[in-house]
Specification:
By secondary structure, the protein is mostly beta strands. Helix content is about 0%, strand content about 45%. It is built from no helices and eleven strands.
């Protein structure tokens, strides 16, 4: 059974840095597209970044993440990371990772494509 567990969320000040981890168990995550999403109460879920299954080597970022966030994969640890730098108060949200079991083509932020979700980790950025 595929299981995703996020960690690394914390409270930081503006300009700070966090590394979020998405640990995958039950399957080899190299064969799955992995996406990072974030959500604030009362707002729609927002795609932050995604990485395709390993053989495609495709990465995408949402507009709010470009130039500040970096996604990476460590196959030896079956883990996908999301590095958040130069954090802003508007980055405050619950960040969740999700797995796309049929990652045809470039990775994307279509929520319906992601069948498996973690529980989320809270990121709070204060000014």
């Amino acid at each position: 059974q595929l299981l995703l567990v996020e960690s690394g969320g914390d409270s930081v000040q503006t300009g700070g840095f966090l590394r979020l981890s998405c640990a995958v168990s039950g399957v080899n995550s190299d064969y799955y597209g992995i996406g990072w999403f974030r959500q604030v109460p009362g707002k729609e879920r927002e795609g932050v970044s995604c990485i395709s299954e390993k053989s495609r080597s495709n990465i995408n970022y949402g507009d709010s993440a470009k130039g500040r966030f970096t996604i990476s994969r460590d196959s030896t640890k079956n883990t996908v990371y999301l590095d958040l730098k130069n954090l802003r108060p508007e980055d405050t949200a619950v960040y969740s990772c999700a797995a796309d079991p049929a990652p045809y083509g470039p990775c994307n932020f279509e929520v319906r494509n992601y069948d498996f979700w973690g529980q989320g980790t809270q990121v709070t950025v204060s000014s």
